[in-house]
Amino acid sequence: MQYRVFFLLPFLWFWACNGSEQASDANDAPSAGNGPTFTLQPPSTTGLDVMNSVDLDFEFNYDSFAYLLNGAGIGVLDYDLDGLQDLFFVSNQHAHRLFHNEGDWKFTDVSTAAGIGATGGFCTGVSVADVNADGYPDLYISRTGTDAKAADGSRRNLLFLNQKDGTFIEAARQFGLDSDHPSTQATFFDYDGDGDLDCYLLNTPTDFKLVNRVRVSQAANGAISRVLGPIKPYESDQLFRNDGGKFTDVSAAAGIVNRGFGLSVAIYDFNDDQLPDIYVANDYVDPDHLFINQGNGTFVDENFRYFRHTTLSSMGSDIADLNNDGLADLVTLDMLAEDLVRQKRLENGMRPDRYNSLVRFGYGHQFMRNQMQINTGTGFVDYAELAGIAATDWSWAPLLADFDNDRHVDLFVSNGYHYDVGDLDFIEFTSDSIRAKGGATRQQFSTYADYLKLIPSNKVSNYLYRNNGDLRFTNVTAASNLAQPSFSTSSVYADLDNDGDLDLIVGNHGEPPFVYRNETVESGQSGSWLQVTAAGGQANPLGYGLAVSAFVGEEEIFRQLYPVRGFLGTTQGPLHFGLGNAKRIDRLEVRWPDGKTQVLENVAVNQILRLSHQEASRKSIPSAPAPAPLFTYPADQRGLNFVHVENPFDDFDRQSLQPRMLSREGPALAVGDANGDGLQDVLIGGASGQSASLYLQTSAGAFSAATYPFPPDHQRFEDVAALFFDADGDGDQDLYVASGGNEAAPDDPVYQDRFYRNEGGKFAYAPAALPTLRSSTAQVVPIDFDQDGDLDLLVGGRTLPGNYPLAPRSYLLRNDGGSFTDQTQAIFPALESIGMVTAIAQGQILGDEQAEVVIAGEWMPIQVFSFRDGVFTLSSSIPNSTGFWHALLLADLNGDGSNEIVAGNEGLNTRFKPSPTRPVMLYAADFDGNGTIDPILTVPGPAGNQLPVTTKAQMLKQMPGLKKRFLRTSTYASADINDLFGAEEIAQAKQLSVDHLSSTIYKFADGQWQATPLPNSAQTSPVRAIRQGDFNQDGLPDLLMVGNDYGVHVETGRADAGNGVLLLNAGDGKWTTLPNREHGFWASLDARNLQSIPLSDGRTGWVVVNNAGPAALFLWSPPN
């Protein structure tokens, strides 16, 4: 969490609202139904009359120890092995409660009889495990607190051993688990493969004063790096090895030496080497850890290798297979409110300069929103915005389980915090005043409760998201009867009545837990199901680590038994499989943690199946041989070793409200025969200060870097687009290079596009061949519009530097014998004010046997122009197509003889959710009269009025004069655009809108445009380039796409989920997505362009160029 009562930081914003755009994979359509239905079971009926509360006073409070109100753990366990799941509730300060499940939703408090009651200290999480391997579950309770708690022994953790007679005895010291480190949670697993359970203990510092300060050191060579170790020894997490029933702290030897405010821990084999790894979700600025098991008793933190970004204030976490591909995915929670007004009222703890510092000093890319990290087989990419689960307020426990038994894992989120300690008005006006007088002391307040009354307090609802089966989720909280406002923290699921659906137990602060009965089975709306219990090996009787895959048709449903899930809690019940409409399970593949396996065929559904380790064998489970990938990445890149080096420039220093950087649009990429030897060569442009590079293809199909072919002073240009073409009809390839960027002032010579004439394989700069073109451009496309046999040029203007969103001219350049004249005004006048062009294509679209020109851009609709009577005129502006377009491809995808438009857009994995009736707007003017354009991004509020999305702090950075009018954040947060500037000023401002963000196929048929969004797999990132090819050799054109955008404003978070997408044409307008790990093509960096190149050895190469990164060459091979 980022909130501190007396610690104010400027903050960033995010936004999400309901949208209407949908895209789904043809072979994975959303399931029918509205999600599960739950009924709240009152304590008077169940007997679960427990309540956790914390006694705050002047000495013991949030300001002295920020984790006091985080809640207390809940454990699910069948302690007496009667087949019914019992419940254990930790109390932070008071007596713990153990409830025996009597059946029929009746529970009996057996705490006193069991010997588990008041323990003293401040208790946090609970872990259920068979620590002494006697077949009965035990309870391990974590405790935390200040150093004073350690001194009196009340911070030592507790181990309650199950005596098999309904009683427990405390034995932590006997087993070596009585750590006095301030701990949050423990998890038990077999990390060293010796068959017994080891223990990972999640610990935290107790000094909260410097939680958001970076810790760096400087080496002798001047290099600055992050300090990784603890300040005090007890701050590091601990790894305990089980040595025959006695646990030994092997943390240091194992490489577990860290410092972080860890709030949850999850176990999973992240790199598929049959060894369990450890994910630690850290609060505040310290990045999360991914400790990869090296197989020799040690771990290495490889978080940055596997994750492109993580949550900032990481809270709870859970792991499950969300898309049924056999790979487990990860959900981590943060604190971003769903409601935009509430977002802007609350402190966020992050600003652009601070974010950049975290990245620079090795803290990684961290963003304050929930994240849904989808496993690609080589790493993870965040689809939370696409899924619609990114903002759920101050959230604690994510629980991933199939609550409606439809085969797809759903998501429950508990959230709420008793006090809005991040309320900015409270911080600025109340807290600051109290602090100036010495703080919340007895001298100022009669009781501490009097002080607490001054802090805003707002209960919020928990969330339930139903998995639609297409990477998107639907909020079914209200429909499932879960919308009770609360302060909820630790939560667990269990099938409390053994009816085949999962019930929910939600821990609350200051009121009894919510116990929800799942009525899915009883209502007749449930699919079939299977529950699996484990009779494990001698040293691991409960079978922790058991992995089971259920195969139903072509679908794999994967589960693994690691019961610590969410936040502070443990769900020790059976593995649960929802099976949809399946009548039987075709095959059940089982892998035990020691490597033994078993396979069961034709397994009946709707049963509790007990698996026995004794029945397993050492036989490996055969798998079908994987086909050879379509693409390979040669290690030597065949000599194509270009690395794009972006020059340092921060667009946001000049326009802090600009939504993305426009100085990072390169590099340019062109393919052509530069030296006339019959082989295709590659030109890749440089950023400002970097030379472009020409790679000549050799007879062996490799590449050799040519001597720099351009004048040395041309390194000052930013190369963003390039084109090889024969301009003068002499049979060789000349070169046009478009100059972009956003650094210099408008009309600076650095924006002049360039033409290089090919003279015997050498390129001579020919400045007289072009008119003065000092627009920051982005596209150049050849077109013989006048049918005279030579190639004319369309040049797209990208931006008016420093004046976002104002656009420069675009151009039509007529080829007059190898020199070009500007014919825009006379022949294509629309180009003079068309907008921020990003993509141009030309081909037959409208079915009139004449080629059209298609143009798209940022804040632009897709427009189609026809050349008639010597002039280009607008033939069609596609309805509801205003977007953030990046790429266009014209291709006949269905073989009917006419082209469709394949348009690459921003995608749906973004906080913006516009629709034609609820567009995202941009208002631009010099609102404060200081000579600079102020771009104000807005979204529709509940009443349809346009609300600025940015925070007050960011708005004041752009326009400080607004502070006098909006002294209080609450006033600013609820203000719409007219409240900020007045209706008259807004009416005079430039107004732009976006109503469509899906990458989409458009077809003109029967006089109308038909829009078909690409599958969701193609909506996960911006699409920067689209190419076609018959990659699987079935006679149908397929699509290959690349794109990311690392230059997005930090308030939104960089778009980095793209890996490259291969869509195989299945005919009839349907597409199949082939996973990257199967086809072998990976464009995982900040990809800008993609081109194919025939190679002299008969192969086809595909070149990807990346901003601020290396180019990549992939070799395509036809399928066997």
UniProtKB/TrEMBL annotation:
Biased composition (Polar residues): 34-44
Chain intervals for the UniProt region annotation (Disordered): 25-44
ASPIC/UnbV domain segment(s): 549-609
Species lineage: Bacteria, Pseudomonadati, Bacteroidota, Saprospiria, Saprospirales
Keywords: Signal
Gene3D superfamilies according to UniProt: Integrin alpha, N-terminal
Pfam families on file: FG-GAP_3, UnbV_ASPIC
Name of the featured protein: VCBS repeat-containing protein
